[in-house]
Amino acid sequence: MQKWKTLSSEYMYKSPFGNHRKDCVELPDGHKINNYYVNEYDDWVNAVVLTKERKIVLVQQYRHAAGDCFLEIPAGKVEKGETYEEAILREVEEETGFTSEQRPIKLGEFFVNPATQTNKVISYLILDAFQEYTQALDPTEIIDIHIIDIDQMENLIATGKINQLFTVSAYYMVKSYLMSRLKEV
């Protein structure tokens, strides 16, 4: 399959949160789209944080675009100069105060919405986590910590109490990962 050709690009605006770009593109059959809009964002990281007691560490925070509070796994964007692993460890510590002596296990790297966005979400599993610090939140963050039994997750998802896609997909990746480890034993 052939890629589209970018004939021109123009930034509609730039901000610390992301950029909005207008491209003029030509499809392989010669058809042109003069106003194809692209959102440029930094990559995101998230993690299912699991304690030795099989508890999942969740955060609850208000999400203005959706106008509601969401129960989610810890997440955030990668800062300049950080590896994905460094970013998720920092985000988990800042948002929850949790850490682990084990390295995060990378579950996958996925484009968020490749039709209109440039970024990826990189999902991790952090095992044997324990709370060592207090939260170190940004001035605009108000985050409540919730610690639940892993067996409660599917009910929370099924009843819509957890309805954030990246949290749901990461949980099911962890479930698959843990099930495959049990088969190896």
UniProtKB/TrEMBL annotation:
Keywords attached to this entry: Hydrolase
GO cellular component: cytosol
PROSITE patterns to which the protein is assigned, alphabetical: NUDIX, NUDIX_BOX
The keyword tRNA processing belongs to this UniProt entry's keyword annotation: no
Cofactor(s) for this UniProt protein: Mg(2+)
Residue stretches making up the Nudix hydrolase domain: 40-170
Pfam families: NUDIX (PF00293)
Keyword Hydrolase found: yes
SUPFAM superfamilies: Nudix
GO function terms (MF aspect): pyrophosphatase activity
GO BP term, pick one: ribose phosphate metabolic process
Protein family membership: Belongs to the Nudix hydrolase family.
Name of the protein this chain belongs to: DNA mismatch repair protein MutT
Lineage: Bacteria, Bacillati, Bacillota, Bacilli, Bacillales
